[in-house]
Amino acid sequence: MKGIRRWGPSLLFVAPSIILVGVFVYGFIGRTVVESFSHVVTRSGRTRAPGGFGNYAQLIGDSRYQHALWNLLVLTVVFVAGTMIFGLLWALLLERGVNGEGVFRSIFLFPMAVSFVAAGVVWRWLLSPAQGENAVGLNKLLQYMGLSQLQSSWWSAGRFNMAAMAIPAVWQLSGYIMALFLSGFRGISTDQREAARVDGATELQLYRYVLFPQLSPIALSALIIVGHMSMKMFDLIYSIAGPNSYTAEVPATLMWAQMFQLNDATAAAVNATLLLIIVAVLVVPYLIYTNRSEKG
Amino acid sequence: MSTTMTAPATIAMAPRRRRRRSRSEKSLTALQYLLLVFFAVIVLTPLYLLLVTSFKSPAAFSQSTAWFVPNSFSVDGWAKAWDRLAPALGRSLLMASIASVVSSFLGSLNGYVFAKWKFPGSHLVFVLFLFGMFIPYQAIMIPLQAMMLQVQAHAPWFQGIPVLILCHIVYGIPICTLIFRNYYATAVPNEIVEAARVDGAGAFATYSRVVLPVSLPGFVVTLIWQFTSAWNDFLFALFLTTPNNGPVTYALQALAGGQNPDYPSIMAGVLVASLPTLVVYIALGKYFVSGLMSGSVK
Questions:
Q1: Do B3 and A238 touch (CB under 8 A)?
Q2: Where do the ABC transmembrane type-1 domain residues begin and end (chain B) (predicted)?
């Protein structure tokens, strides 16, 4: 009885959120999973979805889905590597304090305040594939700079086309990663730097043995943040490549096509469930690890 | 790991160094500035293009001279973009304001419980909430859309902005909860909560008299964070609304997707649609960064 008296009110506080998250997150995930297993026969009598795990086998065997997965892999590798490299580099350039630090910080961060859709509208034009006389956007700029040989068809063609799609994503989120690393550097007390210097450590050794090891938790969360954003990326691709681009298709955009162009909710549910599993494989160990070590 | 889960904290400025600089250090500093300016120019390039294009006359615009500054300034593009986007701007403003206030308030209640008035199993519930932050929304979109259609069959007014308000409230709960939990964990000493408890104050009295009055910094962070993410959302808008009753991101997408693109008004539209978040960011940049920091587990 005493327990209820004590915990009751606090449970009441969180009850609305528990119900909302329970229904809208976990309940809906459950319904998506159920949908993904359903057996569907079209009106003409063709079996569209065999049902059960057969639906999964069907989608995984589909070359369009495999193409989307490949695109996602290329996008993720370049996006993650790009944001980590620029984020860390900018943080290193700023962390020892420069004049106008606030200005540089704001410049590097501002793309983060812009929506993916708005950014996509600009980048669609910047990444126009036309070259030579018809070149516009970045290709034209490269010509002005005498770098014509660097012109590219960007995301429009090639096996690694999604590397170009990662460029606007890197532009948008490197500043975020910079801010994370910068707060990490600033969180390390100056005493530690002084102590290392007194002990005769070079600047390089100072970073290698004193500062970087303390940043690894931040690097890990940065990796998780950018990684899971890449897997969910939809707005930017939709905005740059349009709603029906096979070339730039990833599972998240394919799901939209399955829903509204192929009218195949079951395949969309299979795709969405697989996407959730991919993200969960990345995030769940991290959440368990973080929350366990925080307790202790 | 606790570093990444700490309460909102702004980036401290680097302490001034008083050591004398050697020559190699001086050239290193010069290189440092050179690189910073170089990267700043690259990052600002799309903004430059937006600005110069938006002030060109739609009639005189040519793709081949797009990189040059306009010969004559024209605000026709801005006027057209404003005409096309103004109704959606109003809808976005309403949606993002309500959604951010409500989910911040729910986040504050939850954060208080998870930080200061735990119940058996509250840690598990908290972790389950956190996972809700990471899920790809594709995984809930099909049932969500079906449910909205069902509701609309009974309540025809429930479309467009009200639908999005509900979505942004619900899917904003996890991040707001996290931010407030981390904030209260450091900003409200356990002793004060204990003292209130000993004095006979219940969970609610403790919240309204002790916790809520010191919550302003937390609210600033969650309000900014939620406002920008609701404002910038496109996925929910695309699945659940139309360009005519949806937010500005959807209207901008429609403006930009025409057959004969009118670049000056499109680029002006991008600026118009981004202005509120940019203003929030410039005016409250310090808090925005705090929001990013506390969202770092996201």
A1: no
A2: 89-284
* ipTM of the prediction: 0.90
Q: Are B266 and A104 in contact (CB under 8 A)?
A: no
Sequence-distant (≥ 6) Cβ neighbours of residue B200 within 8 angstroms: none
- Specify the DSSP class assigned to residue B15: P
Kindly give the pairing relationship between strand A47-49 and strand A40-41.
antiparallel
Domains and CATH numbers, chain A: 73-244 (1.10.3720.10), 250-296 (no CATH)
Residue burial A187-209, b: 16+ Cβ < 10 Å; e: rest: eeeeeebeebeeeebeeeebbee
Contact criterion met (CB < 8 Å) for A115 and B273: yes
For residues A107 and B44, the answer to whether their CB atoms sit within 8 Å is yes
Q: Which of A180, A166, A162, A158 is nearest to A116 (CA)?
A: A166
Distance from the Cα of A91 to chain B's closest Cα (Å) equals: 10
| Min distance B48 CA to chain A CA atoms (Å) | 11
Q: Has residue B20 got a pLDDT over 70?
A: no
Please indicate whether residue A4 or residue B226 has the higher confidence score (pLDDT). Answer: B226
Fill in the DSSP letter of residue A37: T
Cite the DSSP H helix spans in chain B. Answer: 23-54, 76-116, 122-134, 138-154, 161-187, 190-198, 203-206, 216-232, 235-240, 248-256, 263-283, 285-294
Q: Do A269 and B142 touch (CB under 8 A)?
A: yes
Q: What is the mean pLDDT of residues B94-122?
A: 93
Average pLDDT of every residue of chain A: 89
Query: According to the per-residue pLDDT averaged within each range, which of A199-208, B144-153, B178-187 is highest?
Result: B144-153
Please work out, in degrees rounded to the nearest 5, the angle formed at the alpha carbon of residue B53 by the alpha carbons of B51 and B58: 140
CATH of the domain spanning B78-297: 1.10.3720.10
Q: Give mean pLDDT, residues A76-101.
A: 92
Contact B257 A31 (CB under 8 A): no
pTM of the model: 0.89
B161-187 and A2-21 helices cross at what angle (nearest 10)? Answer: 140
Judged by a CB distance cut-off of 8 A, whether residue A141 touches chain B is: yes
pLDDT at B21: 60
Contacts of A114 in chain B (CB under 8 A): 232, 274, 277-278
Tokens found for residue A75? 């996008």
Torsion, Cα A259 A261 A263 A264, to 10 degrees, reads -60
How confident is the model at residue B12, as a pLDDT? 57
d(CA B213, CA B68): 53
Q: Does B46 touch chain A (CB under 8 A)?
A: yes
The tens digit of pLDDT for each residue in A154-173 reads 888 888 999 999 999 999 99
For A181-197, the pLDDT digits (tens) are 988 888 787 888 888 88
